[in-house]
Structure prediction request, 167 residues.
Amino acid sequence: MASARICLGQIGAAHGVRGEVRLRSFTADPEAIARYGPLATEDGRVFEIETMRPAKDHFVAKLAGIGDRNAAERLANLKLYVPRERLPEPTEADEFYHADLLGLTAVDRDGRAIGTVVAIQNYGAGDLIEVKSGDDDRTHLVPFDATHVPAVDVAAGRIVVILPEGR
Prediction:
């Protein structure tokens, strides 16, 4: 199941007084974010990256139409998206977009449904799959690694999830 838009990055704090912003890229090649064309926010605003330079753990970017610090500050925390069709299709068997996982049925090793993938989270220590249980509406956060997620089959609409002990 493909999403209509894919989140490629997020604007952080303003940088300097000339309208530059900190920019975090979520693309496999972080610099590629500038090559996908105009980036749209959730509320429909569209931005083009005019210039971009690497910084410590982010980029410093100049966005078209943003000319001063006040305008840059109003953009803090905005996520930036592109239409799915602008992105190349995954080429490897174990390669996929996080958005492709949303809505997949989570099953245990025996194929029994345990819920639905509702989000991919990352709080700084790695990706987590958020699975909403079909039985009681609880959600489970599961590390997105080979131990806890041994198989992903986007075409079949399912993902094998091993819940941590005590879940």
In short: The radius of gyration is 18 Å. The mean pLDDT is 91.
